[in-house]
Structure formats: C-alpha cells, structure tokens
Amino acid sequence: MQMIWALFTLVGFAIGGCPYMEGEPAIKARQPMGSSAEDHFLDEFTVDDSNSYLTSTVGSKIQDDKSLKAGERGPTLLEDVITLRKIQHFDHERVPERAVHARGAAAHGVFTSYGDWSNITAASLLNQTGKETPVFVRFSTVAGSRGSADTVRDVHGFATRFYTDEGNWDLVGNNIPVFFIQDAILFPDLIHSVKPAPDREIPQAATAHDSAWDFFSQQPSALHTLFWAMAGNGIPRSYRHMDGFGVHSFRLVTNEGTSKFVKFHWKTLQGKASLVWEEAQILAGKNADYHRDDLWNAIESGNGPEWEFGVQVVDEEDALSFGFDILDATKIIPEELVPVTPLGKMKLNRNPRNYFAETEQVMYQVGHVVRGIDFSEDPLLQGRIYSYFDTQINRHGGPNYDQLPINRPHVDVHNNQRDGAGQNFIHLNTAAYSPNTLSNGSPRQANQTVGNGFFTSPTRRVEGNLVRATSPTFADVWSQARMFYNSLIPVEQQFLINAMRFEASQLKSEIVKSNVLIQLNRVSHDIARRVGEALGMQAPAADPTYYNDNRTAFVSIFNHTLPTVRGFKVAVLTSDAGNGSLSQAAALRQAFAPAGVSVVVVGERLVPGVNATYSAADATAFDGIIVASGAEVLWGANATSTLFPSQRPKQILSDGYRWGKPVGAMGSAEGVLRESGVDTIPGVYAGGDVQGLVKGFVEGLGVFKFVDRFAVDS
Ligand code: HDD
C-alpha cells in the first residue's frame, strides 16, 4: 500500500511541478479516506496554481508569454520550444468523444448500505449497516455528440462507479429499464441508425429521421424501449428526477457460493418528473446545459440528489416462470411480480473540480464487477463486457486507462501487466510473470473458490450446441410495450402518441412510415390509428395477437406528486416601475427558502434585487411563475418595450401555464392571469398574502405538471 501511495506522490510531482512552486504545495499529504468532509480521494492529484510562476511542462520558469522572434517584427524561431510545446499540447487537448453517451455530466457522492446483505451477496459494500462507499456517477444522453443539448429526447445513461474496498464495481445503466436489442451484435446497427445521416450529418441528437425508424420497425425488439423514450422518460425534468436501472439480469453470489438472479434499480428520492416536449425543444436552444446546470446547482446549494438502491431477486430456476425470459433485456419484471428490496441509498454531494480529468476521463466498464456480483447469460450483456474495455483503449490511446486518477480503485493493484502508453507506475518486481519463485510467488493467486477473489458463481453451468440464433423465449417483443402503454395515464399516453407523430411525420420514406404503422399496430390498433391520422395514412386492420390488458403500477411519471421540491426555481415577474414589486419579490424569496426553492426575480433591468432580465428570461427556465403586484404595468400599454421582446412578461406567464406549471399572481397583478389566458383551475394561485400563496404554490410545485391543461384526443 505504502509503495503505491509513494508512487502516486511521484506522479503528482510530475503533474504539479511542485519543486518550483511557491506558496501552498500542490501535493497534499494523503489523509485516511473519510477523515473529514473535505477529504477526497482525488485531492492528491489536484494542482493549485494560485501564487505560482508560469513554468514549462518540465518545470522551468517562463519569463513571459511572448514567442521568440528574430527581431521584434520577425518570424518566430523553430528553437522556441516554449511556444512549440504549448501549441503542441493544445493541438492534442481532445480525446475521442464517447461513441455513444458523449454528452453528459457527473458528480461524486456516497453510497450507504442499509444493512448486512451477506445472505444474498458477498459484495463487501453491502455487508454492514451504515457502510459507506464513495461513488462517481455520470448521467448522459445516448445519440448526441459531446456539445449537443441536454434536453433532446433520448434514453439517458445512469452510470455508477462504486469505489469499494474490494475494487471498483461499475453499474452502467440507463434511466429506462429495457433496451432496444437483445443481442450485442446488433449494437453497431442500432447506433448507426440513430446517429445523424452519414452524408450530411443531420439531425443531431434526434431519432426523428428515416434510418432510426427504419431500424425500429425492422427490429421490433426496439419497440418497448422506444415506447419508454417517447413517453416522459425520454425528456426528464433533470437527472435528479429519473430512476436508474441495471437493465440486464445479473447475479448476486454469497460467500457460500449460492447465487440468484437480480435486477438492479435506482429509485429517485426526488420523484420522477418530466418536461413536456415543447419545453424540452425550446430549452435545447435557450439553455443547452439545462440538466448539467441543474445537477451542479443542486449540489452547490446543498440539495444533492438521492436515490434508493434496490434489487429484484429471482431464483435461478424461475428465470422462465413469468411468461418471458429474464435473460431478455427487452423485458421488465413487473414489481407486482417481484418487489424491489431496498438495499441502500446514494447521495451525490460533490461536483467535479475538472470536467476533463473527471467526467470526460471516467471510463466505466460493465466488466468491472466485484466479488459477490456476477454476470448472467443475457447475450446483450455478454457483448457489452467486451465493448467497454475495448473502447477505452481507443479513447485513452493505450491500455493504462485504469491508472487515471478517476479510474483508480481505492485498493492496491498487483498483477503482471506491464508498460504501455502512459504507464504511471514504477513496478519494482522484476519477475513479472506467474508462477515465479524469484518474487516469492507474488503476486499470489487469491483463493479461486470461496472467500477471497472470486466473483463467478460456482454453481453456474452452461451447455448447448453452438448456434447463431435468438432463443424462442425472446420472441414476444410486443406484449410488454403494450403493458407499458396500458400503465400510463391518458394524458401521458397522449404525450407518447404526440411524440410518435412528431417523429414519424418527419420521415421521408413511405415504406418506413408504413412499416412503423404495422409494428405499432401489433402493440395497439388505437396507437397505430392515432399516429396514422397525423401521417395521413390508414392503420392496418387490428392485429390482436399480442394485445393484452396487463398493467404495472410503477411506470407512470405523471400520476404522483413529488416527495420534495428542493432545488426547484420559481420566477417572480416584477417591474421597477411597479409599486413595490421588488420588495414583494424579496419577501417571496424568503418565504420559499425553507422549502429549498430558489426565487429568480425577473425585471426590465438588472437593478439591485433583480436576477434576470425579460430580455433573457424564458418560462422554460422555471418550475413555476408568479407575477408580483405592481408588475401588471407590463401587461397594459407598457407591454411593448425596447428592453425586451414584445409581450415577453405575458408570454412567460402564459407559456408556463400552457406547459402545466403552477402559476400565480399577487394583489393588484391578479388581473393579468385572465389577460394571459390563465383559467382558474388547479395550479393557479392568487392572493395578497405572501405566506399563504407560497404554501399553496409549494404544493403546486410538488404536483409539478397540472395535466388537465393538456388536450387528449381519441
Ligand atoms: Fe453502452 C457507453 C449504457 C448497451 C457499448 N453505455 C455507455 C454509457 C452508458 C451505457 C450509461 C456511458 C457511460 C459513461 O457515462 O461513460 N449501454 C448502456 C446500457 C446498455 C448498453 C444500459 C444496455 C442494457 N453499450 C451497449 C451495448 C454495447 C455498448 C450492447 C456494445 C456492444 N456503451 C458502449 C460503448 C460505450 C458505452 C461503445 C461508449 C463509451 C463507453 O462505452 O465508455 O462501449
């Protein structure tokens, strides 16, 4: 252990150029993990440039930042190594973005086990009540490139690294519990179909194009996941408001070697919440960093998000007893059949200090499991195990990516892997092979059967002829898509149909459109008919083989109120011409604070007390909108101003209302509600009493979307 930390220090020296620095040393002495709230495992890799001189990459002080020229007006010299190296380093600043999930944001946190779960797993992070394990979690969208907008419609990645005391465990999941395909060999096809067209590279981060729906309709295993993505799960309110899933069945294995199948779940303790499509689209332009911002701000304001971690446990012999195969990643196990047992809780409480070093360089791998956790025979999972190891070599440029600070396990690493690009360690063992006698047999093999060092379930057996085939137990890919749709409330079903109308109406190929209707019709004639209507096409005759009335209680996003509204933002619309609207905004800010809701005061100018101008503010940025008394002056003759686009205050209020948000008006401003098309139905708050209004409004924020405001067709 000591040797490893000594080496870390050496590495840090090279990075920090410590001997030449003045003031605070860049390399801090390592403290035991968790000794104080400030203590963090990346601390020793940080570089503190405050109070320092500029140096070259090898530590020589640099006099100034001008290039070396032959005469003041002459050309720069080839011998100017300072300039050459600086430009060269810049030229190589980027690494390849992730082939999928390129756009994302991450945070540090801690996982706490609720108990000693050694009855179901030998995983050390779960073997003690209250045991804490550091985590690093990255959220992402799948299809867009690294600079794409956060609120595009997509499946969202939810990748968690547990730095356990027995090595790293990466649970690389999504916010949707199922996947488009059943076999990893189809992954490149899926991704090629959803990525932008190869000739013109459009559209960015969107599936509203022919190749995506061509694939979806030719490969109907995609339908179930597609339904989840077309519903609210594709456009969450924030990363904080989505669940996470391991998707595949994995195995938990005990110290005694017994194993069971499990599905892993992260249940958001903020409650599930989703945007509506128009909001999401506008946000993509108004604030492409909306989710990134939200996560960062929530953590900085002490409202770090939390998730409960749980498992559905299934006996090995029950793998086929639910009417589908639990090795098929296009299926959920409805929680009515197997409830989720909560095992622990995760809280994110620390933002990265450097996006590139941490978020961009974190390299998750499905193959990173720890003792007590094992794979299943799910063919999608099997292929993933290879892909993640391989892709990191492409991104990092060599095999030593696990040595990067964010990727290092928090335990010693001893093996005979050597050298390679970017090797950080100075291995002292000259007998880098096994077995050996020259190094006393070290590193020695850990016991392969019980106790130290196994993660493969000893009872696992496989047999069979070699076949390239899909198991007949994977054949029904329509029934669960139907069950998902049945389980949504009517307005949510409408959102899903609207999303399909939006996407399918942009398809150019008549054949693809017709194939889409054929597949939708296998799930529901009603869906095919309603989507077809927007396409000006007749749905095929009902195809009822997979029609069913099954429902599950745990998939709707719009059927519940949120357990907390902490981290939400409310706009208070004011006018500096209005009588006292700014002081009322200040009172509202104070009244919202105990609920963890922040107030953004919007005004014509950035005068003291105003946080945003009408010229920049937009309803998409807020979870609720209140017009302060006095601001009604901006509705009448003053609705047009050169300081903001015409009618902007009214637009903020009416958009917020239209998108289902709680809205309100105080005192003399009450009249603007009707004037802005706001009817007095649930989620509209009026009155002169700040405390009274805020109390009702906080409840309205918990409802989040007042769904009666959206039309449903039939
Ligand atoms: Fe994947 C990244 C999730 C199937 C190949 N995947 C990646 C990330 C997430 C997922 C969250 C981003 C990790 C991060 O934040 O760095 N992927 C999934 C889920 C799947 C899935 C839940 C199905 C259940 N993936 C899947 C298959 C393959 C891949 C079948 C290949 C055969 N995935 C990759 C990859 C990526 C990746 C190309 C790109 C960057 C990376 O791995 O680190 O290897």
UniProtKB/TrEMBL annotation:
Q: List the EC numbers from the record.
A: 1.11.1.6
Concerning its family, UniProt says: Belongs to the catalase family.
What Pfam families has UniProt attached to this entry?
Answer: Catalase, Catalase-rel, Catalase_C
- The protein's superkingdom reads Eukaryota
GO cellular component terms attached to this protein's record: cytosol
Catalytic reaction equation(s): 2 H2O2 = O2 + 2 H2O
Q: Show which residues constitute the signal peptide.
A: 1-16
Quote the record's binding site residues for heme. Answer: Y388
User: What residues does the Catalase core domain cover?
Assistant: 55-442
Function noted in UniProt: Occurs in almost all aerobically respiring organisms and serves to protect cells from the toxic effects of hydrogen peroxide.
Q: Please state what the protein is called.
A: Catalase
Where does this protein have coiled-coil stretches? none
Keywords associated with the record: Heme, Hydrogen peroxide, Iron, Metal-binding, Oxidoreductase, Peroxidase, Signal
GO terms of biological process kind: hydrogen peroxide catabolic process; response to oxidative stress
